[in-house]
Amino acid sequence: MAVEKNYGNSELENKLRDRYYYTSDSSKDFSDEVRKISGTISHMCYQCGTCTGSCPSAPRSSYRIRVFMRRAVLGLEDEALMDPDLWLCTTCYSCTDRCPRDIAPTDVIMAMRNLAFRKDIGPRNFLKTVQLIYSSGHGVPNNDVNRAAREKLGLPRDPPTTHSYPEFMPGIRKIIDHYGLKEQADKLLSEE
Amino acid sequence: MAENQKPRVGVFICHCGTNIAGSLSIEEVMDYARTLPGVVVADQYQYMCSTPGQNKIIDAIKEHDLNGIVVAACSPRLHEPTFRTATSEGGLNKFRFEMANIRDQNSWVHMHDWDGATEKAKDQVRIAVAKARLLEDLQPKSVAVEHAAMVVGAGVGGMQAALDLANAGIKTYLVEKLPTIGGRMSQLDKTFPTLDCSQCILTPKMVDAGRHPLIELKTYTEVENVEGYIGNFEITLRKMARGTYDGPEMIAAGREGSGCNGCGDCAEVCPVIKPNPFEMGMAPRKAIYIYHPQVMPLQYTIDFESCVKCGLCKEICGPEKNAINLDMVDQLEKVKVGCVILATGYDLIPIEDKTEWGYKKYENVITGLEFERLICASGPTGGHMIRPSDGATPMKVGFVLCAGSRDNTGGVAKPYCSRFCCMYSLKHAHQLMEKIPGCQPYIFYMDIRSFGKMYEEFYYRIQNEGCKFIRGRVASVQEDPVTKNVYVMTEDTLLGRPVTIECDLVVLAAAIQPKPDAERIRQMFGISKSQDGWYLEAHPKLNPCGTTTAGIFLAGVCQGPKDIPDTVAQAEGAASAASIPIHQGEVQLEPYFAQCVEDLCAGCGMCVPQCPYKALALIEKDGKKVMEVTEAKCKGCGTCGGFCPGGAIRMQHFTSPQICAQIDAFLLGGRGGEE
After folding, report:
1. Average pLDDT in the B106-132 region?
2. B405 vs chain A: nearest CA distance in angstroms?
3. Pair A83, A165 in one domain
4. B329, B241 contact by CB (below 8 A)
5. Residue of B19, B132, B115 lying closest to B74 (CA atoms)
6. Chain B residue with minimal CA distance to A66?
7. Of the residues A72, A92, A118, the one at which a domain ends
8. Hey, what CATH class is B594-652 in?
9. What is the ipTM of this complex?
10. Which of A78, B113, B360, B571 gets the most CB atoms within 10 Å of its CB?
11. Which residues of B touch A19 (CB under 8 A)?
């Protein structure tokens, strides 16, 4: 476990904090859980970097999927789940296509997001999306600008989705309620 | 040049693709060659060594009635034999050929100096032509080859080579310094990646080698002296005093009794206890001992350095066997062989000198070889893996790879990769996880070099079994003095974080180095070493089993680190190569002998002690003392020729007129070198 120091200055303490990796930082349960949820052999990563090299998000952000794979292997739960980069994966599956060890890194990320959400960790935009789907059935609902454009193109103002058939909304809400997603999103956003 | 024969030299310039033609002007050199005295034809070709290239030489000899050939191309080490063959196919004596090395010694080193390289090539061609004008017909000498071979070192490589030679019908002496054959492989528990029991696959070979009618085991024996040359090596062996006789030795010594049968009664009564080097010093042996139960030959050996000569062993051995002689002394024996294979093996480096890893300072830091003995069912713990400090079962074990390998700091460190540590550490990790449920191995590595057949698959398997891999070279190992646990400090370079892992036991995959007496053996057999100390092969790719000394071959780690499959493969290659001259029955020696010009020889004899090969002698001929050369022994080194105060020694193919003509051609641009 990291050694605690007390300088009485939080900024300095953060700067000088013990960055050693100790085996006690590792949670075997976390590794196993990620492996189970992802359904992929996350423990077999040999850190070649093909995933990060394939990633369209990596050149535009600090997101490095290889680092998340390393955290999965070592069971570095806090480091993985607290990292805001976890939410920068676009789930394009390029890494999964190319992984030479036939691992699905995308699914590892999805598993970590699952586990993060269970620990009340989730970014605002994801939570808002949950609310929108709950209220409209759409992550990006129709709006007036869009409606005008559709009219111009000779289309109905609303697409043939829940916007046109609101009678299907209860079904969608039932699914979301089953996982407690809306409740969780409301709770987290209210804590902001 | 035979007398009354005008020199008619042909010059052939090789492009070697762009190796030569890309750095200098072939045309210019060819035009220049045509202006040289004695040159009647000059030609060029993309690859002179190809069949059309060689045909150019053969045709030109006939067409222009040539009597000297110069090829300006690569190194004579590479293609002199090729062009000599072409020369002789054209109808000339093959020694009427001279090579100018305008590739290795010119175009490759002056790649970016077109004009300079072209001028230098002209110099080189002019010098070669100067010698070619004076070349003479020479006849190689044939010598008979002794139908026997010697293998030095009886590890798995030496045994395999000896078995192959013997199975090919060649009498083979298998010389081993230790009291038993088997070598390092007999110390190993399992072999990667198949996890075969090492002893189980080795002992059949040991038995075969021990029982083969054409293999004569020479255990507890060292090479004392080497004389002779390919086909006729006279090797003196020192049979060290072993203190016991086996059956045949009893008969030879004229002793009453049946000799040592390996019963072990003597060891039971022996009062002297010493550490057993076979168990890496972790188990005891007596002053009269065998290394392990499967030794070959099964014959006890007395360590006379620790023996107190109490005589208890002799007493219990009894008159029926009468195997023990406490006053035995070393014996020298001469054997004659045609070829020799060296398979002298390796040692671990003294890894304690790399103090940062704490070997021999902390009890729970051991080497890979010690691990082998500790995990081995026939080892000191009966295969129960324990840690040395308290005998506890280790639950977290760190493996330090590249411990002294790939390290340029000098001292005991080695710049090369030791080539099998990655794989045996993977195997160790597997063995731990198999034998100790819940044991967590950590492998600290820079690269995992799993290059062999099924090796990468083995690496995959070990990772799948739960071994943790931390990419980072271990900076230091530190001990908790209370718990005796050891902390391994490194960086996880993939995480970008420093790492400290508390382990119960640390295993160092120590680098390997040549045996301490490898240097002495090398000098006796007159072979070279590479800069890292391993024996030097004749060519790293095209002649990996041979050496630059004819008749001496290499097998196994003595030539450079290699694992068991590579060692056995090289041993079979060396055996095959060594059997060729033996089966041919005779070898041709290059006729570069010294010759005594008897009219000039004053018979002073001063040259005789100068010769490093003992090839010279003073004899009485026609009432006059003259020097005589044993041509088969002469290596043409020129020591005597340079030394003779009367100029009475002539070096064939390197005569004074030939060398002077070359020097003149260089210094005077050929103008002073006219006949």
Report:
1. 96
2. 22
3. no
4. yes
5. B19
6. B494
7. A118
8. alpha beta
9. 0.80
10. B571
11. 497-498
